[in-house]
Prior knowledge:
Layout: E1 4-11, E2 20-25, E3 43-48, H1 50-70, E4 85-93, H2 113-126, E5 136-145, E6 153-160
Parallel strand pairs: 4-5
Antiparallel strand pairs: 1-6, 2-3, 4-6
Helix pairs in contact: 1-2
Amino acid sequence: MSIKLVEFWCAGKPRPKGSWTPIAMCSTHGDPKCEICTFKRGSRVFMDGGEALSAWSKAVAEVSGNAYRSGVYQFTERAVYLGPVKVEADFFFDKPAKGTVEPYPTTKTYGDGDKLTRAIWDALVVGRVLGDDRQVVSWGGAKAWAYEGASAGALVRVETV
């Protein structure tokens, strides 16, 4: 029998983790927007999600941690759950205002399901719900458009296995 550890809604645009983007980096000044150099001597570096991912991860960590500590199982001696878990994460995105709308958010803009999930798992560790994301032994979820009048975000459920 499984026991629900936490269930929460985190509002905001879900962001994937693990999509590395190459950018030109000035090797002299270490600035991707260097106006002094022409990048002839520059190198390529990779950025992972940037500020948008950082803000999303912080929000998920805060909401998950608060929900976990205020829920049915208020752990005082053990701050994190250390056993195997199942994680279900449903991601909801705002529909585009213009143009043709596909039945599901499948374009590059919305991220791969596995990378969206990776951001959630890591945030569960930062939020001190889980000790390590290796504890996730079962997972699932979906990507969909947010209902009319509802905000974008993620509905996440974590339960024991």
